Amino acid sequence: MDGNHTIYHDKEFDPIVIDKEPWVIDEYERNSYCLYQKKGERIQTLQLIVGRSTVQIWHQVCDDSKSKDELSKLPNKGGPFLEYIWANGIPINQERE
Question: Origin, by domain of life (predicted)?
Fold first, then answer.
């Protein structure tokens, strides 16, 4: 993680995604916020990322189970997935000017 990415979270929160605007090649400030994390048999997490050109909400439902059958029943097989995205609509070449 670089110094331009600030993550606001509780002590025990592990971010589910880090860099999610790969089309922006120069350095820019971005912030992430843990919106929700419920731990139990399954861990559900919502993470908000406010980047230069998008606002994104990422969701993950994971299970500590090692069973591939159980993991295959989870959304995105337990991996993070993009729940919502809003883009500013400014073409990258105009954004750099």
Answer: Eukaryota
State pLDDT tens for residues 66-91: 677 778 888 888 899 999 999 888 77
Choose among 45, 49, 41: nearest CA to 59: 45
Q: How many helices (H) and strands (E) does the chain have?
A: 2, 5
66-75: burial string, b at 16+ Cβ within 10 Å, e else: eeeeeeeeee
- When divided into structural domains, the chain yields a total of 1
Structural domain that includes position 38: 5-95
3-state secondary structure (DSSP) of residue 71: helix
Q: Are 63 and 42 in contact (CB under 8 A)?
A: yes
What's the DSSP call for residue 68? H
